[in-house]
Structures are given as structure tokens and as C-alpha cells.
Queue: 4 jobs
Job 1
Amino acid sequence: MLERHRRFRVWGLDIGQTVKAMAFTYDKTGNLYLPAQRNEKFLTPRTARNSAFSGALFDAVRKNTGWSHDCGEALGVSFCGPVIRRTVMVSVNRRIGAPLDLGRLPVLNDGMAHTLASRLAGSGKGHKGAYCMLTLGSGVGLGMFHWGDHGDALVPNNGEAHFSVHTEGIRRVPKCNCGRYGCFEALVNNKALVDLLEQEGVEVPGERRDNAGFFIEELTRPGMRPNFKVGRALGAWHQRLASGICNLWAMNDMGGNRLQEPPMFVLGGGLSRLVLTATLKQFCFTEFGGKPFMGKRLLIRKEKLGNAAGCIGAAAWAVAECLDMDPLNIRVLRG
Ligand SMILES: [Zn+2]
């Protein structure tokens, strides 16, 4: 076998409340090979001091996956909080604000990891217009690409959805974890959905509050009587989602210059299972009174990579760093 096709192991870690770990292989030409089936999941370590986090993480990864730092296996990390160069800002265990030590690992924000994976191997692959990915879960991740003269460009400084959307008609505007009222993040995350259900008089049991997606799916299974309260809560949630998408649509389009048509929005994360794309698109057009100044073509899709996206993005990021390549030039291939 040619040396450049020799395969090496790389792990992709997706860190949130739990750590998802997937083992991939790669070669020196920039091919990243998807694993047939290997997915470990374990609790994110909690440490009293931020500086102790990387040590605890390495121990947990070693114990749960057999990963070994010594034999040169690469490791990339997708993290559920703002990432500034290699420094992640705490959000797993504590409030955002203090840097959390991750040693010298290649790390990127989880919104960006999902976006990269979607672009390389998922629903965003091959799309030529502006592209935006939203991951909907306990938080809201955001990643965008613009299509430039030299190929794609990752829009820097995104990953978090702390921008305001209009709040007229919203009874209880939640306070965002960034301290503001009216953030898109706080209006469409899991907590907001639970609140919308409760405003309609749907009781959400304690153990189901962390994932309203599954709870709603159970209440609306095919063959069940229509649940109008859940329907109204979901309708309001779609409206809020549409409002944020319209903001991003206008921004992606450079304020109406129609430079990067058609814009495509890909929705991932646990709550994306609830999205009715046609309804959402309808709400988006309604926001503009039926006549968006950006043009008429708006694509909304769901991400097909599912919950593997974070690990794939993290592994691609690590491989790009090992090989000193543009991450958008990594080729993701089956086993
Ligand atoms: Zn915010």
C-alpha cells in the first residue's frame, strides 16, 4: 500500500452534557473514512477547577474508548460553547465566562462542527448558494457558509444564536443565558418549547423536560387523536423559528443583493425532528408579507447525518490540522 494511503486512527468527540465519541480512520491525502459502527457515549466529566478539565476528559476518553495519546491517535473536539482559538468558554458545567482548559486539542464550537460535517458529508454537500445550519436542542447552534470566489468560506465568529428577533405577541419573553431578553437562542431552545407547552396547559413531567422532542413525538404519534394544545405550542415555536431564519436569510443574502441564491437552511439537532419544513417556509414568507426582498427561492432541509454530525465535524477538523489542510477540502468516505 502506498504510504499516502496508509490509514491512521482519529477520534471525534462531541462534548455536551454527555460525550459522544466516534473512531474514524484517515489517510494523508485528506480522506476521512466513516466508521462502520463505533459510537461510545459517557458523561462529561465535572471538575472543581477549569484547569483540571482536560486531564479528567483524557482519563474518561481513555477509559471509555481505548484511545491512547501515546500511540499518536488524533483527537478532535466539538464543544457546546463559544470557542476562541483553542480556548473554550465554559458552558457544560457552569455559566459561560471562564476559559476551560482543553490542552492543545483541535476544538471547534458544536454549531460549526455540525455545519462542517453537513457541508462535507450531509444535507449541505454540494450546495452552491449561501448555506446556514441551525442545530436545535438544549441550546441553538449556528454555522454559515458563503460561497466565495475561492470556494466556500466559513463565516467566522458564529456558532451561537444570540441575536434578537421580534417578540410582539409573546407572553413570556425568556431571559437568555447571555443575559438579554429576546435572543433567538432563548426563544426556540428546548426550554422555550417546554414553556410553550405549559402555556397551553400541557404538563411536562420532570424527567421529560430535558428533551421535549421525544415527549411531543409520543403525544402526536400517528393514530392518536390530534392534540390541539401541542399543535398550538408547536405552531408558535415554528413562528419563532421562522423569525430567526428570516433574519439570517436577509443577512446571508447581503441585504437583498441576491448574490448567493438560493439560500439553504439545514436544521439538525434533537428538536429538528419536530420541524415541518413546509410550514416553516410558509411562516418565513408570511414574515415578509409574502414578498421577501431577497428573492423567492428558500430551501429548508433537515440534516441527514443525525447525531453523528458533531463527531464527524470534530474528526474532520482534527485531520485538517494534522495534514495542514483546509477543512473544507477533507473528503468524507464510507469505511
Ligand atoms: Zn442570548
Job 2
Amino acid sequence: MSGRITVDEARTLWNDASDEELQRLAQEVRHRWHEPNHATYMVMRIINYTNVCVAQCDYCAFYVLPNQEGGYVLSRKDVFAKIDDLLEVGGDLVAFNGGFNPKLPLDFYCDLFAAVRARYGDRVEFYALTIAEFIYLADRANLTHAEAAVRLRDAGVHWITGGGSEILTEDFRKRHAKFKYTVREYFEAQRAIVEAGLKTTATMVIGFDETLDERLEHLRRTRDFQDECIAENLHGLFSFLCWTYKPYGTEFAGVEISPREYWRHIALSRIFLDNVKHVRTSVLTQNAEAFRALDYGADDFDLPIEDEVTQKAGATIELDLEGLLAVPRKLGYTVEYRRAERPAALTI
Ligand code: SF4
């Protein structure tokens, strides 16, 4: 394969290419960045600090509305205990993720993140918020995205990840998450984040009712954003992580897609996103099946020990980490632990 593929070529590949052909092309792109038969991983925990949310996405089984029974906000003590547990099992990455809770302003998060940084230093890295939460908090604080990014950076944050993106088309957002953000806002916020010197990532969730064209639009917008970052010498997207929708207990419901469809999508993403270094496979939603995606161009994965959001919708978490790591080894991969990177300018 010479050069990058167009959206039309990607559509043809998806419709016509055999699994073997997709694997071969994806491995070609993977080899430009990574050693063959080698993968990296992290042990991490998603800390869901609050389940109170006003966004009301119809694919979410996690949230409760303000004043509804069952709402919670984790105390600082709870957060520290969860991080201590993570360190005990050998992990060092925390991803904070929660609902759009109107009672928690941006300052609450700045204080929390500063406290985590002060207590753990560089023993733990954390993904502070997803872009979805970031946009909500900046709006509530009447700050521009640039101003909010600087506030978080000054509180010790290094990463605001691309989570909460699901499918980045305006139509998908209107169908399923009309109170969340527009696609235009999403990329404006992500630009402000990288311009502030923070690191970020791209994500995608498949398996709702999205069309092939919507999947391709999401990939095209992601690649365009990365092209812009590279042209302007910005950090850009560190990685692209795709996972699958879990339908249990959600208003939208539906059925899960097959592992094979997921692997093929990982291959297509690896081929299309020729300017993103890491393509990550989701153990959280695919369990042991996630590792076959390494044959389809993925090079990196998390071993998560908790994520209430996906667990509420049917995800199951395997805590036998050595047992999980045996699976990629059996497939012929060496696996190596990877520490979260820090932006050079922000290294303490
Ligand atoms: S997916 Fe996130 S933003 Fe949407 S309702 Fe659930 S917690 Fe709220």
C-alpha cells in the first residue's frame, strides 16, 4: 500500500476486503511505528467521582439525575483509597471520569487534581477529565476553553483525553446526546487543550446505530485534526482508542457487535489513521477477545481494574492480570509495561 487512503477507499476496504487483507494492510502501517510482535500495556483504574449527570445520553446506564436516589460524589478519602489499591496491584494510571454534576464547579476538580498530584507526585499519572466534561465545566465557569485548560494545567494536570466522543458527527450527537456538545465544540476544545501544552488522545465507540459513513466521518475528522497539529508543531493525539457500546440497562438498548466486527474496525482505523502512533485495543469491553486486535494493527492496551460506567452497561472486569497477559503471549507477542508519558514542557 503506498500513501494514505481516502474515505472512499476506506469504504471499499470495509465492504470488500477479507479479514486477511485488512490484517496485512494494518500490519504494514503498524510496522512504520512499532516492532512486529511487540505490544505495550498499562494497568489502570477509572475513578468515577460522581454519577450525577444532566447530559442524559440515551446509551448510558451509569448516570442519575440531580436529586434522584443513588447519586454520589466520592470523597477525597475514597479517591485516595482507590489510587492506593491501584498502586498495590502494580498500576500507575488513573482516569477520572464522571457525570456533568451541576453542584461540582471547575474549582472542585482543580483542587482534587492538585491534591492527587501533591500526594502521589510522579508515582501516578492521571487523565484528568474527558473533553466532554471539560467543555461542560468550562461553560459553567464562563471560561473560554483556553482559559479552562490553563486553570487545569496550573493545578497539575497533564492529560485531558478525548473520551466521551463516541461518534463524532453532528447527526449522531443529536440522536443520542443532544445535551453534550457539538462536534465543532469538541474539536475547538481539543485544540485549546493542545495549545495549552496538555496531552490528549482520540477515542471512538462503535456498535450503536451509526452508519459506515458516520464511522468514516469520525476517522476523517480525527486524521484531519492530527494533520493540523503536526503542521503547527503541537503535541497532537498521542493515541486512538476504540471500544464497543455495551447496551445493558440503557435507554437506547440494542445488541453488541461481534468481536470480528471490532477487529476489522481496528484494522480500518490503523490503516486510515496513518498519522497517529498508537492504536489501542479495549480489554475493558472486549475482554480476552481484545488481544486478537493486535493482529489487526493495534499495538497497545490497558488492563483496567475498575470502570463503573461500562460495568453498569454490562462490561465485566478480569482481575487476573497475569492470566490476561498470557493471551497476547500465546498469540506470539511480547508485552511490555508502558508508563504514561508527560508533556516535556510540564515535567516536574
Ligand atoms: S455518558 Fe457521561 S455525559 Fe452521558 S449521561 Fe452518561 S455520565 Fe452523563
Job 3
Amino acid sequence: MTMTVTNGEVNPVTANGGFTIDKPFKIFVGYDPREDIAYEVCHHSILKRSSIPVEITPIVQSDLRTNGLYWRERGQLESTEFSFTRFLTPRLANYDGWAMFVDCDFLYLADIKELRDLIDDKYAIMCVQHDYTPKEATKMDGAVQTVYPRKNWSSMVLYNCGHPKNKVLTPEVVNTQTGAFLHRFQWLEDEEIGSIPFVWNFLEGHNKVVEGDTTTFPKAIHYTRGGPWFEAWKNCEFAELWLKEKDECVKEEKK
Ligand SMILES: [Mn+2]
């Protein structure tokens, strides 16, 4: 790619008929060595359907430790290696522009441009705001239900990395703050969190497709309980879509 320089100013990169080429959309994918194949398939599913340039980077905990960005001890409740490292996304994007974080257990079925086009600069972050509030606030015996606010919200987040509020997410904070502070976005006010249609974080086993209603058709399936790469989940809903993508991915790698 070539940059055109006029009067000392760098203009947007142009080529082939002069249209502006977008800066690549930065995507950080949570990586866990136990789920390498999930990462590969997620990566493949984004690239294959994208009509815009994307830059996909795995978030690898061991690399972050080597680079001095991550040092916290692993807690008992961390189900993946990226439970906390995901919150380094604004730092990894140098607190500039928008970047997406997504778990590796996603399968994209739509063009990522459609998601990027939903971005609104008035928000600090945007995500699917799943509602997990149980229907009854108390159990039959009167005990209060354990509600886990904003469950699954942090699994796919568009970060406005240049937003002043996100400067809070320094490596120090990511390494020391509680899971509740980070996963519930407690550094933000409610109105600073934008909403994305649920089909971009369609929870397998929770969200349902309504026949004939295209607004319920998944654009990204989240195998949040475990996907077909685990023996126990090889027959989960949408397993065949993931397995088909995996076959393609493996074939292309062999070429
Ligand atoms: Mn997940």
C-alpha cells in the first residue's frame, strides 16, 4: 500500500480508482491453548465473510506475561485464559480508534462490516445486552436468587479505545480489579454502553430463532456452554455449521 503525502500531511490511502481504503478493523480474539481449533475456526469465519480489511490478533496470556502487560495470578473462577486479559483490548489498540474483542467460541455467519457499521462514537463501548434476570426475584423459600448482572456482556465488546473513560483500563487496573468491576463495566455509566442486536452474540442453548423472523437469525453464534470441539458438545445446536467451517478451515490450511 502507498501513502500519498501532500504538504506534509498524510492523506488516507487511495488506490485503484481513488477510493479510500479503510484502515483495517482491529479484532482481538481471546485465545486458550485448550481451544486452539475454536480460535482457528472463529478466525476463518470472520475473514471469509469480511468485505472490509480486518486485522485479527489472538490475545495470548503467555505473550502478555512475557511483555509485562499481565501478571495477575490465575483465580479459581477463571474458565479461560482470557477471562481478564480481554480488558487489555484498549491498551493493545494503543487507546486509539475502535477495536473489537470476542471470545474464541464464536462462529461468524455474516459480514463483520455490518457490525462495524453499527458503531456510534457517542458510546465508550457497545455490546449485546443479554438479560439474565430470573423471572422470580425470590425462590419459593423466600431466599434471594443469585443474579449475575450483565452475564455474557463482556464476551463480545466493541471498544471505543480512544474514549477518555477507557483510559481507566490500564494494565495495573486489569491486573488488580475484581471480576465484578471488569465484567460489569463498572468504570462506565449505563448510558455510555451502547446496545447491539442479540444476533451478534447469539447464545447457543439460550437464544432462539423465530421461524420467519429474520431479525432472530444468528449473525454470530456463541457456543457459550462449550462447542462441538468438545466431545460432550458435539451434538449441540448449530454443531453442523461449526463442523462444516472447521472442515473448510482444515482443507485450506493443507493447501
Ligand atoms: Mn464464550
Job 4
Amino acid sequence: MLRLAIAFCTVFLLQLSHLFGMEKNDSPYIIPPPLKNLDKKYKLRIVYFVPSDKKVKKDYRQKASVLMRVVSDVYKREIKANGFHTKGLDFEFDQNGQIIVHLVNAENKSSFYTGSPFNIDHFLNSHQQEIWEKTGFSRNRPTLVFSEAGAVAEARPIPQVYSGLACVSADALSDVVTASKIEDQIKKFHASEDITAKAASISQTSNGVIVHEIGHIFGMLHDTKDPRNIMMRGYDNLGKMYQREESKNRPVRFSKAHARMASYSRFLNEAFDEADAEAPNIEKFGIESSINGGDSSINISVRIRDNKGLGSIIIMQRGGGQIDALVADFSPDGEAVFDKNVSIKCPKPLVPNQPVIMIINVMDLNGNLSQSTIHSQVKPKE
Ligand SMILES: [Zn+2]
């Protein structure tokens, strides 16, 4: 009875403190929840890649864990905010429930991996090759690499095996950029007496760019329509997502089209038919008539078929004054065929001779991704 009375008093006091705004947690910041094993079959693999001429940074496990805690939180919040259901991203964990960070002590010096001059394809290929040798083939395991070889931020999806490679600079694992504790990391995102505006900016960008690169693995493309978009450079302001008040306005976000795309990927979707490994068939993706200078729209015909039903379609225009604009998106809702003539509105009027590049990404209901590209050109001036 006494215990009950005490319990009652505690509850009463808690409510009282709520009323008077005396909550224990009076921090202006949101702290993302800890990572936990979701036991999914489709997980992200984390690799720390250290060439033979570079040193392993101390506390790299804690740093990677802190970074991924933020990444995981952004995905969960933003996919949900756009109205899609997900339990979130999953990672590899050890028996103690700690996220696994595969340390790859690479065989060669940095220059071997960068190439000289630097070549991004060579960079990714040479990393991938050695990572596969040391951690196993990456089926169902898209891999995020913190590389000591060079400063890159690049991603390459390998959708046929539900995989891919996203590479960022291992500078993100240094003390100045990333904290070993999540509370300190959120503080690092904000300029203060201890943290310069420049340092805060670097910390936000380094953590945010990981969210962006992984997005490419899930089928997202760039989207310049809204500066808040993570698939633009919205991630530069990542810290705003962790300001209690500001966060309500979704100051950093995935657009609905991209959230839908990611929500169908096997990493975020909770209900898909695993037996369906057939990617959508893009039967037609082409420009029907010639494009003239001064035009501000392009007619494209699209025909796509899928054995089990289509989930999401996005079209991006590359270049054209405004780099990488998302110009169309469709939600086929499980239809087996999408057959349409689409009028694409270009972000800027087209000029004679300008190259016209259009990229379409299509995801079916079961997380199979297809891509097709149009390379064309605006007619020369007569
Ligand atoms: Zn990108």
C-alpha cells in the first residue's frame, strides 16, 4: 500500500512538473534513440577501410556507431513523416548488441586505390574488390565505407543483388568532426562557445552526406526542387532536425517521391515477396518529338511492366541550368503496367544544342530496381 502511495505520488509529481514545464529533460535538442538489431535479412554493412600507409583512428567504432545512430533516425523519421510505414534501417550487430564495423586493413597504399590521376570508378572498384575479399560478398548487404584512401562521397547501387557501395571520407571518424557520444555529437552540430560555426558545419555535412549517399543505394536520385531536400544539399543543415522546436517544421527532409522510393526498398519495406527477384522491365523510355531551343517542356513516352506490380517511378533531368532536378514522379500503386505519354516540365527553358539527359528509376512492390537513361540534345539554332 505504501508502495502504491509512493507510486501514485511519483506519477502526480511527474504530471505536476509537466504542467509547470519542469521536465527533467529540458535540453533544446533531440537525442536519436540507440541502434538495435531488427533481425532483418537486408542490412547495411559498415566498413572502415585503411590503406597500408594510413593509421587506424582511435574510437572508430564509437564514432561510426554515433554517425549511424543519426542516419538511422533520419530515415525512420522522414519515411514516416511522408506517410510510409517502416521499422527503420538495420545493421550488423555482434553478440553484445554493438554495431559491427568491419576494419579492413588494406593491402596497398592510398595511391593504389585513388589511381593517379584520381579516378572514381577505379576508386570504387578497388575498394569493393578488397572489401569483398575480406568481409564476404555483399548480397543483401549494401556497404557504407569510411575510407582513409581519399576524400570522396560517392554511391553506386548494385540492385540485382540488393546491394551497393557508398563511400565517404574517414575524416568523419576524427575527433574534430564526430563525437564518441551521441549527446556530444548533437551538440557538435550547433555553434556555441565551444564549437565554431565552421566546425558545426563540417560535423553536420559529414554526418548528413552519409544519409544522402545511402539514399542513392535505395533508388533515390537528386532533387533540387527544395533546398531542404536531403537529396540536394539539405543535409548541410542536419543539426536543425535535432532542435526540438525547429524539427517540427521538417527543416531537413526527403521529398515524398524519394521517401516512397526508399520505402519500397527491401531495407525499409516491412512486407514484400522475397521470391520476386524480377526487376521492372522498362520497355520504352524515349523522347517522341524533336526538342527546340526555347522549349520548356519535353514529351516523353514511358512504358513499364512488372510481373508483380509497380511501386514507385521517378524521373530526373540532369543538367539544364539547374543540376539534377526531379521532374516527374508516379505512384502506380501495384499496377502491372505503366503506359503513359508524360509532359516533362523543365526547370529552365532549353537552349539550342544543350544536352538533354533524363534518368528514370523504377521500383516494384518487392524492392527490385531498374534504371534507364535518355541521352538527347536540343536542336541547333537554324
Ligand atoms: Zn548524390
